[in-house]
Every structure is written in C-alpha cells, then in structure tokens.
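User: Look at the shape:
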Amino acid sequence: MSAARPSEPAALAAAATSSLVLVHDPVSRAVAPDYWDWSADAHHAAVEALTALDDDQVRTAVARVADNPADSAAALGLSAALTALLCRPGGESGAVDALRSAAARTESLSRLLVQPGAPDRPTAGPATEAPGTADLLAVLAHKPHGGTHPVDAAVVIPFRAADDATGRVRNLAAVLNALTDQSHPRERYRVVVVESDERPRWREVFADACDAYVFAPDPGRFNKSWTVNVGVVHGARPTELVCVLDGDILVDRGFIARAVERFQRPGTQAHWPFEDMLFLDPASSADAVRTRCLEAAPDPGQDRLRGVHLRRPPGGCVWLREDLFTRIGGMDERFCGWGGEDQDFVWRAERYGPMDRHNDPLVHLHHDRAAHRGDDGVPFYEEVERAGFCSWPCDSDFGRLDKNTPQPTGA
C-alpha cells in the first residue's frame, strides 16, 4: 500500500465501520447524495473486505451494525475490534491486508465519515423528542436589539419552509436561540432572517426573534443566492463582517466572538470556521437542541452525537468582510433551486480574497432533504454550469427586492 495513504489502524477501522453504516443506512447516505455517488464503489468494496474477515467477534459486530446502523454501541465495538486486527503486522493475513487496503482507499477519496456517537446516547423516549418552536423562542438569552447602527458582524440566514415543514421551522428557532446566547456583546452583531416565498408564512413567528426580518417575494423554486443577497443589502448593512449561515447550523457560544477576533489578523478577508461539518441524525438533533438551547450549555456536545461528517464542504457557514461580498457582486442569483451556489460563491470569493479554514466543531440539524435535481434528473444548476461557474459579473445589481415583481408592460 502506498505510503501516501492513511495507515493508522484506528482511522482505518473507523473508515471501514463508516462504510458499513453508509451501505446499510439510507438516512446517512441522504445527507449528501452526490458525495455518496462519487464514493459508493469504494464503500461497497470496503464492506466486501470487511465481511470476508474470518473473525467471530468481527462477524457478530458486522451483523449487529448491518441490522441496525444506528446502534452506536455496536458500531463502536466493531471499530475497536477492527483496530486490534489492523494493529497486526502486514502480511500475516490476506483478508486483513485486503481490508486495510480497501479502508485506506475509502479514506483517500470519500467525503463522508460516520460518527457513531456515544454508546449510551438516547435513541428513543422524551430525550429524543425535539423541543417545540415556541419553547425555543420563549427562552432567548437576550432580546434582539433591532438596531440599524454599525456592527462588527451580521449573520444572514436564508429561509423557506412550507406550512407543514415543522422540522425546518424548529431548526431555525434553535439557531436563533443559540445566536442570542453569544459571548460577543449583543449590540455588536446583527441577526438577519430572510424569508423567500410566495408569502411571508413565518413572519409572525420569527420577526421578533431576530434583529431584522426581511421578506423576499418569490413564488418559484427557492433561490438561496438571491435570498442571501437581499439579506445583505436590506438587513445586514452597515457591518464589517457578513456570515452566511444556513438555518439549520447550531452554533456554540463563542461562534461570533471567535470570528471577529480572527478578522483582526492582517490580511484576513474570509474563512470557513470549520473543516468538517457533522450532519446529525434525528435523535442527536433533538439532543443537541435540548442541550444547547434549553439547558443553555455553551455547545451542543458534538463528540457524543451521531451523524455523518461532510469533509470540507463549501457551504453551510461562511464568514467574509462585507466589502469582499460587495466586490464580487454577492452570490450568483442565476442559481435557482438547491445545489452549486455555495461552491460558486466561495470560488469567486477566494479569487479576490484569501479564504482560510479553521477547525471549530459545527453541527447541522436534521431535516428532510430538498431535491437537488428536476424530475428529469438534471441538476438545477445545469444552466449556470453551461454558462460557466464564476461567471457572475462583479458589478451585478444584486439583492433587488423587486427582482421577481412583474414589470408593467413597456417598462
């Protein structure tokens, strides 16, 4: 095996266990369907190598995980058994060597890695029931200031949820709750929620839970790029920094203070605060929200939660100076429907200003996944891809609230 591939036994054991979970758990695969498609063959090969091992302890653990991929204790037990096997010198067993090679290949190309979570984490009962939206908004650490004065940072959250999409609504309530509980002075940052839909379905719920609520009328497919641009132009300014934050990212108490401090370093223009993002399963999402929001813990307790790490994703949470956001013309508003907009945005931002990456823990709350393709299987961003990524003009008149308003004939 190449010396350039991962070889640490515990890492390879975790990778093999992750492959087994992904192969047998459609919920974990659905976190990032494209990422799964790109590495599915390698994961299946790792599982084949895993099931070929002639070891009773491993065979029993594999059967338990395959039968119930959410069994954290079984997954951790399998990883421990595999670590012991993989610590043996190479050449002793052809089957072990084959697993070592297959797991190393998976570790070398997959952007998905399952985190089993703590063995005693609750999987049923009251602890796995997500707190309600009203409960989360009733215990805000600080009331929004609602001011339009200059601030250090503005957090812009694009949002859309159908009338029956209670999961996304509850997630946004949790995100807003966590954003009121920050170590940075409350009057020095602004939280902006931009709801883009055919009508302001959730204004009465969220308008008093943020500093600025903006309604961006759009009856078509959700356009995250335009929604964010509207938030920067009509809600965030005046601000030194902009954070584009998805409405399901549950942040810790030092989230804003760390970002502000990092931008004090000369030459800093933009960054991701994380390397890998942990997409939580439903039970762990409820646990994280209860811990961070109702128990007022400083963080969600990421290490004990179960989910799937997305390695170095382009979106979810990006910080940059407002000047850089404006210099590149904001986000490309031609992206309509989910997919592609985050990658295009950070590519263009990095062209004009260096993008740093930090290693803060960051968790993504569970919700039903939105479609990224049309009924014909074509990605929503196909039109932009044909025109060329990074082709959005820097001098674009972005963030116009009347973008989707019918113009009078002859205008």
